[in-house]
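Lab notebook, bench 4. The sequencing result for the construct came back, and we need a structural model before the next group meeting so we can plan mutations. Quick request posted to the team channel:

Model the 3D structure of this chain.
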Amino acid sequence: MATTDRKDRTVIRFHSGSGIYLKDGATDWENIGEAISAKLTRKSNELAVTFMSGDIMKKRGSRECSVAIVLAQDNKTILDRIDALMDKTVIMAIDNGLMGTKRQCFYFKEIELIDTFDIDMSGDKHQALGISALVYPQTAVFAVTPSTGLPTECGLTGASPITGTNRFYTIVEETPA
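Done. Here's the predicted structure in token form:
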């Protein structure tokens, strides 16, 4: 990574966390709400092998990926829709907003919403809904074409496929038309 990529103030994402979009099979993309925060977690476990000499060698073991999202609102329609999608495999896109002149979107080819709602109803806070999703790895890295594979609300219109660098998700970043 170039030093300019790490120290350039224009790459600070001031307009982050827009829509969270789900797609159930052949249906159209559905915005389930606007995020006030989202956390993508990808981690590997270590495996230790002990040799007869007593020496231990560690290797990277299994990998996992998950997403935790806090939606800025909740209502019966959103809660009912999330309930209907539990235990189903769906596609998800997270519009991550603008960074300088580029728009970024995370594309997850296969996720499962897990039953871990958190609804914060504190007196001095708005009602926020926290949801979690398991991200399923694909057999290989995969591509998405912005103009046909992402929600139109993301504003990405590229006609060429963008291939990810891991088997869990693909990051699409381009200057909107």
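Residues 76-85 form the longest helix (10 residues).
Will bring this to the meeting.
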